[in-house]
């Protein structure tokens, strides 16, 4: 999202995180802007039964964790590296200075946050009212638009695991598997070599 050269000009540093390493924990105050150079990050928390709910998944070039940074509120979720990842960190004060001095970047950040807010609103309505097949399809369609899933001869490759789909929609993995099979029968999805395509 923000050019690495510009971030580095304001004092950003690169840091590597191993798979499953915690980047920040729920309940702490933010001190940095985070942007992914390579890898994948999830923001999630757990309910009283120990079930994980994924708030979001972020990929190369995307930033995460900004709302608490702007609001000076504690993080509402943990950020964890899904795979080995390299992330650039910029201190909050330097990030704010970057935004003040670069209005076009500020607009990009606002658009990015608006996109996430829109997704949360759509998914909140889906999770509370719709059938599993509808929830899964809505998530996949959003993923195609927002996460830029790759397209090949089979269609768009859905780069979510069944577990991630469950954690993002509030469904159990078994329900996700049944929903995907039903959607395949309805020709809404394809399953090729255990991979899901839209």
Uncertain stretches: none
The average pLDDT value, as a whole number, equals 91
Number of helices: 7
Structural class: alpha+beta
Strand order of the largest sheet: 1-8-3-6
Strand segment tally: 12
Distance between the termini: 26 Å
Q: Which percent bin holds the helix content? A: 40-55%
Oligomer: single chain
| Helix and strand pattern | HEEEEEEHEEHHHEEHHEE
Task: State the shape.
Answer: globular
Q: Largest beta sheet, briefly?
A: 4 strands, antiparallel
- Taking all Cα atoms into account, the compactness measure Rg is 18 Å
Percent of residues in beta strands? 25-35%
Structure characterization notes:
By secondary structure, this protein is of the alpha+beta class. The protein is built from seven helices and twelve strands. A four-stranded antiparallel beta sheet has the order 1-8-3-6. Strand 9 and strand 10 form a beta hairpin. Helix 5 packs across helix 6 and helix 6 (162-169) crosses helix 7. The radius of gyration is 18 Å and the shape is globular. The two termini are 26 Å apart. The model has no long low-confidence stretch (mean pLDDT 91).
Task: Please render the helix and strand layout as text.
Elements (H helix, E strand, L loop, with lengths): L3 H6 L3 E5 L4 E3 L7 E7 L1 E7 L5 E8 L3 E2 L1 H6 L6 E4 L3 E7 H10 L1 H27 L2 H15 L4 E2 L2 E2 L5 H8 L3 H13 L4 E3 L2 E3 L1
Antiparallel strand pairs: 1-8, 2-7, 3-6, 3-8, 4-5, 4-7, 9-10, 11-12
